[in-house]
Amino acid sequence: MTADRTPARLGIDPRSPRFGAAITGVLLAVTIVLELTRPAVWFGYSGTGPFVEFFAILFQYRLPDPALWLLAAISAVFAWGAFAGIRRHPYGAIFRRFIRPRLGPPTELEDAAPPTFAQGVGFVITAAGVILQLLGVPYALVIAASFAFLAAFLNSVFAFCLGCRMYLGLRRIGLLRRPLAA
User: Fold this and answer.
1) Which spans are transmembrane here (predicted)?
2) Total count of domains within the chain
């Protein structure tokens, strides 16, 4: 009887992934702006944008592409959520410590497996953007960050989690047989 009331069975506060998606969305928007304002040979413009000049002065040209570093950090946070589980995600810890005490209790809890799967999808997309950017594929970073931003925006603003929907669809058609460990 008490085994059914363990935290793994109870679920997670659905506001926590939305909070994390909001932070991720802001960071991805900054990533896109940084990448689009760096020296852009493909636009026929050889100057630098104000963000690139700021970072160049700040780091004295030791940080060649701040957008790449930021997307790599976002990818690492996605990996943390995907492999350690959504309950151990750093944004979830911030939510539990600072935000949740100020809110009322959630009306319902949700299963941790779909958001954990969504973190894995975010990791794959952002890691692909980082790798393709390092390989010199034009617009790879912007495209990957834009897809991830769209998903984060939909989750944070409309509570529509694309990765969670993918998880449920894959379970429904039988490609995922068992829930992911949360």
Assistant:
1) 19-36, 67-86, 121-141, 147-168
2) 1
Virtual torsion, Cα 129, 135, 140, 145, nearest 10 deg? 30
Higher pLDDT: 42 or 59? It is 59
Greater model confidence, 72 or 50: 72
**Vertex 134, ends 28 and 33: CA angle to 5°?**
30
Residue 153 lies in a domain: yes
Nearest Cα neighbor of 32 from 76, 58, 68 is: 68
Instruction: List the structure tokens of 17.
Output: 């992934």
User: Which one-letter DSSP state was computed for residue 101?
Assistant: G
Both tokens of 177, joined, read: 């047989």
By residue range, what is the domain housing residue 20? Answer: 2-172
- Asked if the structure places residue 182 within a domain, the reply is no
Structural domain includes residue 179: no
55-114 pLDDT, tens digit per residue, is: 555 554 444 578 999 999 999 999 999 999 888 999 999 999 999 999 999 999 999 999
What tokens does 88 get? Answer: 């151990």
